[in-house]
Amino acid sequence: MEYHELPKIPVNREIRGVLDRINYVAVHASDLDGIASAALIFLLKPSVKIDYLTVSEALNSYRDYDLVIDLPKIGDAVNIDHHRTNYERLKLEGRLTERDLVDPEAPSATLLVAKYFGIGDNPHVRRIVDIATRADLGQYDDDIYVIDKVIKCNSRDKEKLHRIMLAIALYADKVMKDRWFRAEVERLKPVFEICKIFSRAIIRDILDRYGVEYLIIHVESTVPRICVGDIMHDYIEAGGKIVVLINTMKEKDRYCPSLTENIGHRFVRVSIRSRDPEFDARRVLEMYGGGGHKVAAGARIPHDLLPDFLLFMMRNLASKGPAIYLRINREYAERIGIR
């Protein structure tokens, strides 16, 4: 893609002066909100250098950035973010400055980027903000679903993330116009069907059969990693109240191999989704070093703390109603028709 093909986003002289001081940017690598935020920055300044980081990488980074988006603040960089965990940490540490825009009430970081640079009225920008915001709120349609999955699959491949960012910068919600992106979607179509099979089976086995609204899913093997979010989202949409997903998979992912390049044995990935107004997923996972939002949060828990976490969550969920612990492994996959 040639830079002259990019839509022109006009800004005033004051904002142009701000952009002149921004040369090195870090954004969240793992979701549409982070990549869409990067697309807006790229539209404003195509020469900017962008690093795509996980939350863990951001928390342990000592690089000098000018701007950090949808991630915990790094050093003295300007921080644009909407996670309450980050906001409260910055307030507690006295690191929230007038240059930052950290608003835990905002539905997406991309919306805050548009606000920060005064470009929210631009029609192309509005389309980018819309898909990022709907993705972060879990309001998926078919287009947002496939964009999210392509990002998730390539979230450890910095070159491909940059390629996705370019497609969003150029086409906004019409990324299927991009030839490379279209080919990637075709490659992943078999995975989308596998995700649906897992979600349907869990809903059938837990919600339909037993009417249990509180669920802990322990994924041990076989599940494509980009299906993990589907399982949680679909269970909640089908009527579940809280779903806790524990991911201890070590096997290679044949569809998204870059996701398993850094497999470790010290930590377990944990995510929580909730539709219970009295339950705060963020507060729970902050106790284990994680964070996020009230209705959706994540953490990396040391493996030796997993038994303690399981006991804590089972007691917590059982106090609300019947709860089930479900293990997903090769035997379960074969039972529902996946080999």
Protein described:
The chain is an alpha/beta fold. It folds into two domains: about 5-175, inorganic pyrophosphatase (n-terminal core) (Alpha-Beta Complex); about 190-335, Diaminopimelate Epimerase, Chain A, domain 1, CATH 3.10.310.30. It has 13 helices and eleven strands. The chain has helices at about 15-20, 30-45, 55-60, 85-95, 110-115, 125-135, 140-155, 160-170, 180-210, 230-235, 280-285, 305-320, 330-335; strands spanning about 25-30, 50-55, 65-70, 80, 100, 215-220, 240-245, 265-275, 290, 295-300, 325-330. A six-stranded mixed sheet has the order 9-10-8-7-6-11, sandwiched between helices. Strands 2-1-3-4-5 form a five-stranded parallel sheet. Helix 5 packs antiparallel against helix 6, helix 7 (about 140-155) crosses helix 9 and helix 9 crosses helix 10.
* Number of separate helices: 13
Order of helices and strands: HEHEHEEHEHHHHHEHEEHEEHEH
Low-confidence stretches: none
Q: Which structural category fits the helices and strands?
A: alpha/beta
- Could you tell me the CATH topology label of the largest domain: inorganic pyrophosphatase (n-terminal core)
Q: Over the alpha carbons, how many angstroms does the gyration radius reach?
A: 20 Å
Number of strands: 11
Number of domains: 2
CATH architecture field of the largest domain: Alpha-Beta Complex
| Spatial ordering of strands, largest sheet | 9-10-8-7-6-11
* Beta-strand proportion: 15-25%
What is the end-to-end distance? 40 Å
Integer average pLDDT: 94
What is the CATH class of the largest domain? Answer: Alpha Beta
Percent of residues in helices comes to: 40-55%
